[in-house]
Amino acid sequence: MSDPIQIPHEYYQQGDLTIGGISSQFFSFFDFIDFKQHPNLMFIGDPVVVTKNYQHVLALVFAMKEINENPRILPNVTLGFHIYDSYFSEKLTFQTTLNLLFSQKRTIPNYKCGTQKNLIAVIGGLDSKTTLYMATSLSIYKIPQISYYLFGPSSAETHFPFLYRIVPNEENQYQGIIHLLLHFQWTWVGIVMLEDDRGENFLHILMPMLSESGICTAFIDRMPLLTDFSEIIPEHEKTVNKLQLVNNNTVKTLILFAETQFSLFFIFLMYQVETDDKTNVTIGKVWIMTAQWDFPAIEFHKRFDREVFQGALSFAVHTNVVQEFDSFLLTVNPYSQHGDNFIRDFWEQAFSCLFIDPSVVGESTGACTGKEKLESLPGPFFEMSMTPQSYSIYNAVYAIAHALDAMDSWNQVHTAVTAVRNPHPYQLHHFLRRISFNNSAGDLVSLNEKGELESGLDIINWVTFPNKSFSRVKVGRMDPWTLTDREFTINEDVITWHSMFNQMHPRSVCNDNCRPGSVRKKKEGEPFCCYDCNACPKGKISKQTEMDNCIKCPEDQYPNGDQDGCLPKVLHFLSYDDALSINLIFMALSFSVITALVLGIFIKHHNSPIVKANNRGLTYTLLIALLLCFLCSLLFIGQPQKITCLLQQTVFGLIFTVAVSCVLAKTITVILAFMATRPGSRMRNWVGKRLAASIIFSCTAIQGALCTVWLLTAPPFPHLDMDSLAKEIVVECNEGSVPMFYSVLGYLGFLALVSFVVAFLARALPSTFNEAKFITFSMLVFCSVWVSFVPTYLSTKGKYMVAVEIFSILASSAGLLGCIFAPKCYIIALRPELNCKEHITRRNN
User: Fold this and answer.
1) Which of 441, 457, 461, 704 could cysteine-pair with 473, CB 3.0–4.6 Å?
2) What pLDDT is recorded for position 845?
3) 470-478 and 488-490: which strand pairing?
4) Nearest Cα to 442, choosing from 595, 318, 330?
């Protein structure tokens, strides 16, 4: 067995029980193996230090110090630690893990050579690769391993049952990303991820969740992970040219999946993009980082400006303020940390100085004095507050201590023996699996049956400063374990956005939202988040943005001008205060007065020859019927009620039937009277009041029977017509039975037609005796009015239909009144000399 590589960076402190640790803060380069000599690994040059990660070591040391000084936890046991570095290398990770297990000098598996360390558990590592490399070796020996930053893969607990995670389940992070995007309505996003199995697993889980939530992915940038910083410069140009995050300016929100090693390369890459005059496409974007992301820095990052990440949002393991930790950091200097082989390289690269032996070289301006202050370092290089990774390490140490304490208590109760000084590591698993305690910061630390932390994630807003530093501001929480029903919370008021957004809420959509009054129409060949906006068709609305379909307003409402809301429809009917109604009422009353005057004239001159010659009773009946015809038109004005609907058509039909039957009786009487004047005619027996009464009664009885059947079977009723007019509700009388309605009108029309035909055939009788010509003209007017009424009525809507019917009633009645009675009134009033028996009975040849 050959000697392994000598690990230069370790931190050892002896104790009754030892907790191992693997940190990740050095990038080292090794000699190329050509198999021409024994393949011993050798460091080439000085390591590159990720100075910020030195806090991870200090967090473990600080937790150990607190526990050893706390008499309530393991009072009779001193905990020690042994920390190595992974060097971000799988080879060195395996080597340092074996060193923890077996020896500090020579690695012989299954043999513990040298000082006995009583290794009870191991904490590490920073990323998933390092953690799983460690687990490969540690699981063989059933040694508990607590990872402080392993979020995935989710199958780790199946393959490595002795691996515990002091971080929440990775699913919380995916849900948090979706909640965050939906909260800000960012539906057009880009994804930047590692081009490896971890990145593909992230994509495999996230993509279906994005689609289900209505979020589209504009592009996916797969970034190669460069394992050697010497590869960065030659690979930079090739990588930048294929990045869509640089070439696509429509996307304002980028989801970044990266772990620490990739973060270092990506920060460098974004700096190069800025210096290549592509600032306009990289600055002014909202970055959403996963909890694996951090802003570490190495020495050649010191000149980098991080403005490109201003306003970024990221998820992080929930942290709290740990008292005395900042005070502990103030005591750290290169001369106080005994056994710490990390601090010298950290100090030199953090403060850009060198440790020089003054006795040999003398005073030097570049020498490290040890008086440098950690608080003077900018955030990317060192933070004075405990970072999420350090907080997890702190909790991991306490979890092991509480598990040991629980095992010690259990042994005392059940075996009466204190065996915690020399336990076997596998005995600790039973107590770690469901450990639960409150740490010194007041947070509950509890592992579930899967060995995962039952906790949520903080949402962090990153604020950058011109001095290359930054601050992290907690702006929200994603916590499925909360006792409230608010799993996701965020406070927009404390978020600092990039200056390009002017502190306004940034937007990231494929196109502008479709305003109310329009709907989305998919663009062919584009993701479903990209669409055109089409106005709603006439009669429909959309009340909200981003509607897929227009909707109709309720029946009693109509769309407003912008088609984004509904307005109540007003009732539409022929009201009494309407100008049209006033005119029609005036006409109806005027004709009624005229009819009454005519009736009065005829009654006053009832003994005059012209009145007597025209059958006074029949004349009075016709005038009264015409008077009622004019007045019945008033039933059609005003809001239809049940009683008015019942009366409108039936009263109109009956009164008009009486009037038309009177005209028919008058015509038949005239014909019979003329025939009766011939010598030897037997028609004298038919001329008289009984014939006229019989005609009126029989004609009216038939119409009455039709109206009675109509009212008993399907009477008219008030009806609200919502559809005829766009902005109004037509209040109308529904006929009830349409066949009965047309039967009443048809019968009335039939009587009018018979009267017209009879009067027309009698028009050749001598004019001084003959009234048939006037009746013919009156019925011609009557029939013309009602024939023209039908198409006009059917082509109008609402109150205008009612107005057409009223006008037809008035016009037809006025036609009868004028054509039949105007000549007689003229003779009675103006030509009384013609109102004599001789003139009436004289015949013209």
Assistant:
1) 461
2) 36
3) antiparallel
4) 318
Give residues with Cβ within 8 angstroms of 714, minimum separation 6.
736, 737, 740
Q: Residue 639, Cα to own-chain centre: how many angstroms?
A: 44
Distance CA 515, CA 545 (A): 5
Q: For every residue of 4-53, which 3-state class applies, written as one string? A: CCCCCCEEEECCCEEEEEEECCEEEEECCCCCCCCCCCCEEEEEEECHHH
Residue 260 has pLDDT above 80, yes or no: no
User: Under DSSP, is residue 740 helix (H, G, I), strand (E, B) or coil?
Assistant: helix
Q: How far apart are the first and last CA of the chain?
A: 158
Identify the CA nearest to 223 among candidates 166, 160, 270: 270
> For tokens 């003054």, what's the residue?
358
Q: How far is it, in rounded angstroms, from Cα 844 to Cα 840?
A: 11
Length of the chain measured in residues: 845
Six token digits for residue 401: 């201590």
Using an 8 Å Cβ cutoff, are 844 and 765 in contact? Answer: no
Q: What is the pLDDT of residue 544?
A: 87
Distances 661 to 334, 550, 708, 814 between C-alpha atoms, Å: 128, 57, 19, 16
pLDDT of residue 234: 54
Burial class of 411 by CB neighbour count within 10 A (0 to 12, 13 to 18, 19+): middle
Of the chain, the percentage scoring pLDDT greater than 90 comes to: 28
Amino acid in position 133: Y
Residue 255: closest CA among 223, 231, 279 = 223
pLDDT of 48-67, one tens digit each?
888 989 999 999 999 999 99
Rounded to whole angstroms, the Cα distance separating 15 from 76 reads: 11
Going by C-alpha positions, the residue among 129, 166, 119 that lies closest to residue 146 is 166
Give per-residue pLDDT as tens, 546-558. 788 999 988 889 8
pLDDT on residue 589: 94
**Please, are residues 382 and 54 in contact by the beta-carbon 8 Å criterion?**
yes
Query: In this structure, what DSSP letter does residue 248 have?
Result: -
Longest pairwise C-alpha distance within the chain: 172
Residue given tokens 């020495």 in the structure block: 299
β-pairing, 253-256 with 286-289? parallel
Tokens of 407: 């095992």
Q: What is the mean pLDDT of residues 417-424?
A: 65
Name the amino acid, one letter, at 523: K
* pLDDT tens for each residue of 434-467: 899 999 988 999 998 888 898 889 999 998 888 7
- Strands (E) across 257-356 are located at 286-289, 313-317
CA–CA separation, 521 and 535 (whole Å) = 10
